[in-house]
UniProtKB/TrEMBL annotation:
Native organism: Lysinibacillus xylanilyticus
Xref: PANTHER family: SPERMIDINE/PUTRESCINE IMPORT ATP-BINDING PROTEIN POTA (PTHR42781), SPERMIDINE_PUTRESCINE IMPORT ATP-BINDING PROTEIN POTA (PTHR42781:SF4)
A matching Pfam family: ABC_tran
Domain called ABC transporter: residue spans: 2-230
Keywords, ordered alphabetically: ATP-binding, Cell membrane, Ion transport, Iron, Iron transport, Membrane, Nucleotide-binding, Transport
The UniProt record lists the keyword Iron: yes
InterPro entries in the record: AAA+_ATPase, ABC_SmlMolc_Importer, ABC_transporter-like_ATP-bd, ABC_transporter-like_CS, ABC_transpr_FbpC, P-loop_NTPase
SUPFAM superfamilies referenced in this protein's UniProt entry, alphabetically: P-loop containing nucleoside triphosphate hydrolases
Official protein name in the record: ABC transporter ATP-binding protein
GO terms assigned for molecular function: ATP binding
Length: 250
């Protein structure tokens, strides 16, 4: 379990996030959702250990990790722009981090992740030869072979379209279920958050507007911001929400 208690972050006396409290169970998929500049990426970076909170504590499985370094936490992130090495092929990108890991995975274990993500036909391709969905799968595989305790994804679907986007959503859900891997996703898109996640944390101007299941947020928005932000976006993307939650939300 990951617990955040009264997490706040200031930059030059400006509060970016304030008193964030959050509990995420093992194996859950949780989206951090909100408009640009609301503080969701800052919160993700605090969980990762890339940014230090100004106030508050973080606990992982009961242990205080508030002052632990990013390396000691053992959480890993998949970046929005994939962050792959263009001079290496897909396979070398996947195993790149293992050479610095004391207890690396066997080739057979690495291959299990490659097979799971259906990357075997693409292993010898250079990055410029891959489609957007293939690049994202390589990036996910590279993160999974590091055996993260928590998987973090920063706008993982923003560079993808249509069928490819739906495929990656299914992959993320399958990874969380099969490996019981707690997964935290930053997104500005309510449709992605509601169709991908077990729970959604909606952030507005650095504070929590609502935390709940997609059904709770759709049925019982706790304030006008949640209602307006969600419904405004969903009117634009009615079809997927209709398929998932039924006619009353179309």
């Amino acid at each position: 379990m990951l617990e955040l208690k009264n997490i706040s972050k200031n930059y030059k006396n400006k509060k970016v996030i304030e008193n964030i409290n959050l509990s995420i169970q093992s194996g859950e998929i949780v989206s951090l959702l909100g408009p640009s500049g609301c503080g969701k990426t800052t919160l993700l970076n605090i969980i990762l250990g890339l940014t230090q909170q100004t106030d508050g504590q973080l606990f992982f499985n009961g242990q205080d990790i508030s002052k632990q370094s990013m390396q000691d936490r053992g959480f890993n992130i998949v970046f929005q722009d994939f962050a792959l090495f263009p001079h290496l092929n897909a396979y070398d990108n996947i195993v790149y981090g293992l050479k610095n890991k004391k207890e690396g995975m066997s080739k057979m274990e690495v291959q299990e992740y490659i097979d799971f993500l259906e990357l075997t036909p693409h292993l010898h391709k250079k990055i410029h030869e891959l489609s957007g969905g293939q690049k994202q799968r390589v990036s996910i595989a590279r993160t999974l072979v590091m055996q993260p305790k928590i998987l973090l994804l920063d706008e993982p679907l923003s560079a993808l379209d249509g069928v490819i986007k739906e495929s990656i959503k299914e992959r993320i859900q399958s990874i969380a279920r099969q490996f019981n891997l707690t997964t935290i996703i930053v997104t500005h898109d309510p449709e992605e958050a509601l169709t991908l996640s077990d729970k959604v944390l909606i952030i507005n101007e650095g504070t929590v507007s609502q935390f709940g299941t997609p059904q709770e947020i759709l049925n019982m928005p706790e304030n006008k911001f949640v209602e307006d932000f969600i419904l405004r976006q969903l009117r634009i993307k009615r079809h997927n929400i209709y398929q998932l939650f039924g006619e009353s939300y179309a």
